[in-house]
Structure formats: C-alpha cells, structure tokens
Write a structure and sequence with these properties.
With 337 residues, the chain is of the alpha/beta class. It contains ten helices and 16 strands. It has two domains: 177 residues, Quinone Oxidoreductase, Chain A, domain 1 (Alpha-Beta Complex), CATH 3.90.180.10; 126 residues, Rossmann fold. Strands 3, 5, 6, 7, 8, 15 and 16 form a seven-stranded mixed beta sheet that branches. The protein has a six-stranded parallel beta sheet with strand order 11-10-9-12-13-14, sandwiched between helices.
Length: 337
C-alpha cells in the first residue's frame, strides 16, 4: 500500500514521494494522518540546506537529503503493536515526531488521545508544547509582564499560552506589521517593531521598568540582544528559537551579568523523560494539558490557521516558504488526497 509523503529532496526542493508503510513494532502505533502543521522555522532551515539541524551532532560538511518535516500532526490509529495499551485502532490522536505523510509510525509515547478535539487543534500539540515548556521553565507568576521576540508560529502560540497563564502585559515583537496585528488579535496587549529606535525604551515603559519573562523565538543574535534590552533586573529569558548560527556577540557583562538575568535553554529535548515536576513537565503530560485546555474552551489553536492545503500542493507551498519571510500558519489536510 502506498504512503505518499512530502519530502525535501534537495536544497529548496520538495517533492511528493512514496515512502511505504512501516509496520508498528511492539511498542509502536501506526496512524493515518488527517492534519499536519508546518513548523515554518525548522522546516525552512531543513529545506534551505542548514547544516546545523541537530544540537547533539556535529555540523554537517554539506546538507544531506532527503529530509522530512511535519513533526506535529493528528489522525486516527490504524494499527498498534503487541505491547501498546494506551490507544487502540479507531482512536483519534495527536501525534509527535511524525512526518507530512499519509501514514506515520511512532512510539506509543508519542501519541495522545484527543477524543472529540478537532484534528486541526490536535495537530498543534507537539508544536505548542515547545513554548509551553519554555514558559514553565521561566516560572511565570500571575501578573508578571512578558515579552516575546518573533511572531512565527511558536511566538503566536506563546502569546496565547502567556495570556491564559496570567501574564500582563504581554508584548509581541516582530518587524512585520501584519504579524503584529495578528498577535494583538490573539491576545497580546502591545505589539512593537524591534527596528523602532525607541523599541527598548517603549518596552520598558509599558512594563514599568522591564519585562519579567522573555521568550526569544527568532534564534538569531539580534533577537537575543534586543530582548535583553527590554528585561527587568532578575528577569528570565527562555531561548526557545533554535540558534543555528553561533556567530554573534552579546555584551553579557551589561545585559546579563549586571542585571542578574537568567538565560534558560528551552529546546524541547531538554525535558524529563518521566515524572513531571514544577517547571519541568514531560512531553506526554504537556500534550495532555493542551488537550485539557482545548476541551475546557481555554485555548483554540485552530483559529490561528491562515491557510489549509491538500498535501499535493506541498511542492508549491514549500517554494513559498523559501522566499516568503512572512509565511503564514499552514496546515495540510490529508483527507483531501
């Protein structure tokens, strides 16, 4: 049986290929996808030939293909391995570490039952768990001010999570006016342009001396440098965006050391494997929390989606991703094949 998949086969090139179906091992689950979400920053880096795609591995001499995106999705369980007890065929699930493909096979740990939650919402949970973990690590307290640098998909999700977490005010930062407008619609109290000459001064005025919590999503030196200028003494900054280029300089003495700033590594892999604890939750527990928040009507990720496409449009969509720095939030609907 065929398993059509969107694969990055060379620099700036995406194709539809048949990757076949991997039968589930004893601890694995085979899922037929309904919806998958594009993670624009990560997928752009992989598509455009980044040689730094895994922090655990040495930088590649040259990019190696094929590569695959689509690590956050939702669908219906088709088959389970002999040792799987959490789900059964027919269950609707959110899937972590999948691919943009008709079928995906993952470990039982990487699926979460979503019951009546929409596939569109469930397909956000893996992505949404990244800023959720970053906010937890910053130990946000109700009433503290927060600033998010970069309004891609992770930054937009962070706005929504900070709002339900009790941050006030919330400042969204992005050079693109349309993204600043979207951030306000999603719950930010203010939206600023980082290239405004009075950017840092305005941010400190709006937060009565500086933000207590900062979420840096851009992954570039200028983003970290800029958010540090906006922080209060003893503020906490989560490094959420993947910093794939280490060639930048920060005045740590004046911007970190002196004001007592805490820099928090917030890669999603930096989690406990088992036993969640305050500030450090496992990925499965974060996914359950997101499902509970959705069911309770506290959060709706589906409203963030700006475009939905058939996977057959994938090659064209990824050409846009290469050239469009203001790429929208996009999902693929695998039911449209």
């Amino acid at each position: 049986m065929q398993n059509l998949c969107i694969a990055f086969t060379d620099i700036n090139k995406a194709e539809i290929i048949d990757v076949g179906i991997k039968e589930p091992a004893a601890d694995e689950v085979l899922v037929k996808l309904a919806v998958s979400t594009i993670s624009s920053g990560t997928e752009r880096a992989n598509l455009m030939g980044s040689t730094t795609t895994n922090w655990r591995a040495a930088e590649q001499e040259k990019p190696v293909y094929p590569r695959f995106g689509g690590y956050s999705s939702a669908g219906i369980v088709e088959k389970v391995g002999a040792n799987v007890t959490k789900v059964k065929p027919g269950d609707r699930v959110s899937v972590c570490w999948s691919q943009h493909s008709q079928y995906t096979t993952v470990t039982e740990r990487n699926v979460t039952k979503i019951d009546d939650v929409s596939f569109e919402n469930g397909a956000f949970y893996n992505i949404a768990s990244f800023p959720l973990a970053a906010i937890r690590k910053c130990r946000l307290e109700i009433g503290e001010s927060a600033i998010i640098m970069g309004m891609g998909i992770l930054g937009m999700v962070a706005v929504k999570l900070l709002k339900i977490g009790g941050a006030v005010p919330i400042i969204a930062v992005d050079p693109d006016a349309s993204k600043r407008e979207k951030a306000i619609e999603l719950g930010a109290d203010y939206a600023l342009d980082p290239y405004d000459p009075d950017f840092a001064k305005t941010a400190k005025e709006l937060t009565n001396g500086g933000a207590k919590v900062g979420i840096e999503v851009t992954g570039i030196g200028a983003g970290l440098d800029g958010i540090l200028d906006c922080m209060a003494c003893f503020g906490r900054v989560a490094l959420l965006g993947c910093t794939r280029n280490s060639d930048f300089t920060i005045d740590y003495y004046r911007k970190v050391h002196g004001p007592g700033i805490t820099l928090v590594g917030a890669h999603t892999a930096a989690r406990p494997k088992d036993d969640s604890r305050p500030g450090f939750w496992t990925q499965p527990d974060d996914n359950i929390a997101l499902k509970n928040l959705t069911e309770a009507g506290r959060i709706n990720f589906a409203e963030m989606v700006e475009e939905t496409h058939s996977p057959l449009d994938g090659p064209e969509i990824y050409q846009r991703l290469c050239r469009d720095k203001t790429f929208p939030i996009v999902q693929f609907d695998w039911r449209k094949l």
